[in-house]
Amino acid sequence: MKTMPFIDELKHWAATHGDRNAVVVGESRLTYGQLLGGAQTQPNASGTDSLAIIEVPSSTELAVAFCAAVLEGRTAMVLDAQWPQGLRAQLRQAAADWSARQMTLDRGAAAAPPFLLGLSSGTSGVPKAFVRNAASWHESFVQSVEYFHLGPESVTLAPGPMAASMNLYALSESLFAGGGFVALPHFSPDAALQAMTEHNVDRLVLVPTVLGLIASRGLATGQTGQELRSIVCAGSDLPDATLALARSWAPNADIQQYYGAAELGFVAATSMQKPDLNQDAQGVGTAFPGVQISIRDDAGEELEPGQSGDVWVKGPYACDGYAWGDDGMAFTSQTFAGSGLPAGHNAALWSTVRDQGFLDAEGRLNLSGRASDMVIVSGTNVYPHHVERVLSAALKSEPPVRGATIGTDGEVPVPCTAVVAGLPDERRGQVLIAGIYAPLTEHFPLAEVRRAASSLPAAQRPQQFYQLSDLPLTGSGKISRIVLTQWIKEGDSRATRIR
User: Fold this and answer.
1) Ranges for the AMP-dependent synthetase/ligase domain (predicted)?
2) How does pLDDT run across 78-102, given as a tens digit for each residue?
């Protein structure tokens, strides 16, 4: 019997509470019965008999098309309709070429085609595509709905683009659990706050930057997040200032952060409501249920706690590799022998996206960055992630904004952010630059940031500082070092050189 990641559950909920909202986007909504009926009668999306290319804006129409593709057993690829037309055309052609190659392969009678071509950023302008089987998401749903306490009574708002991997997963996870899913046709903090009120949202799934925007606006306008029981953050670090802001805005929410990758699925997670006094500042949590984590050196030897190396993961959630765009800098799977792991593990398949980190004595994963983000300064390997943490610690001490007494919880500091990247340099090979986003502060904190930088080894000290009028973000709201360097190279007014 072919595994479907959430279709059996969708049919169950349509039969047992078919009149309850399944998906709401703006003014459009579909009950479970309507969603299943629409998926069963949906005309084929563009593509082929085995491939569905879904290319519509965030909408209930996107949800129907995605469910229809999965129901039909076609491989789905969801494109962000906001991407440039030329890029989408390149992706459509790459998917068609991949599908044609798949047709020539002898998969065997028992082999199931992948259900998803997911898109992940690469070193070139065209995203690479990873291949995911249905079982990996189905098993992930089984674990995540329990870990995040998601059920039929839950109403989840994912305010980012529905095509983004995290939000597409959140939609599917909600359908698996029988809950309601809410998305926005276009993001703004006000639109998110309005949707929360209109649809009794009790759970958010979002990236930290978007959480900061919503919480700040909510506190400023007196729209508290008192009804939220859960906030799930991923995609990047959750800064302390943003965490404090979110706690003030949504005091009853369990704020959880997880680390993962589109190719790996869940890796580690933690609840921010119960901070561990022994937790290193870089800790992202312990292994997610069903996952094992191993830190290894370049030769594949497992390292002791506290020693930094490549983060390798073993579990049922990983993808099956790339359909195109494998640049050698990301997802890799292999077996390890003689690793000293418990019996039965030596032949297991481990995967990595070349993130760097270490496990502490309590088994908490601490990250230092991704190998592809590494900057080589005068022959020294520097991970921007570590430098950002040091600079952001200085920004945390910034005084609250004058007049920022918001709501009833006293002064709330506006979150400031440091973004560090590398630029080519004739003498050093590369040089570090730092962009500082400090909105509405009484004075720009250059002196504080430079003082913090002086405590770092010489190779880790930024040589150029820029004042940012906006955060450099991807379309899904993640902070992007690539966008920052583009701004600087192009002389974009959003990044002003100050030293």
Assistant:
1) 116-322
2) 999 988 898 899 999 999 999 988 8
**Residue 35 region, left (φ>0) first, then alpha (ψ -120 to 50), else beta?**
alpha
Q: Is the pTM of this model over 0.70?
A: yes
* Distances, alpha carbon 288 to alpha carbons 50, 64, 159, 185, 267, in Å: 33, 30, 24, 32, 5
The residues that bridge with 31 in the sheet, in sequence order, are: 21
Q: In what order do the strands lie in the sheet with 429-437?
A: 417-425, 429-437, 464-468, 495-497
DSSP element (H, E) containing 332: strand 332-335
Q: In angstroms, how far apart are the furthest CA atoms of the chain?
A: 69
* C-beta neighbour count of 28 within 10 angstroms: 12
SS3 state at 402: coil
Q: How far apart are CA 153 and CA 175, in angstroms?
A: 12
HSE of 399, CA atoms in CB hemisphere, 13 A: 6
Strands 495-497 and 254-261: unpaired
Cβ proximity of 310 and 296 under 8 Å: yes
3-state secondary structure of 205: strand
d(CA 114, CA 128): 16
For residue 460, the 8-state DSSP code is G
**383: Cβ contacts below 8 Å, ≥ 6 apart:** 356, 368, 369, 373, 374, 375
- Rounded Cα distance between 183 and 165, Å, is 14
CA–CA separation, 318 vs 333, rounded Å? Answer: 9
List pLDDT tens digits, range 216-229. 999 999 999 999 99
Q: Which domains does the chain have, with CATH numbers?
A: 7-286 (3.40.50.12780), 287-372 (2.30.38.10), 374-497 (3.30.300.30)
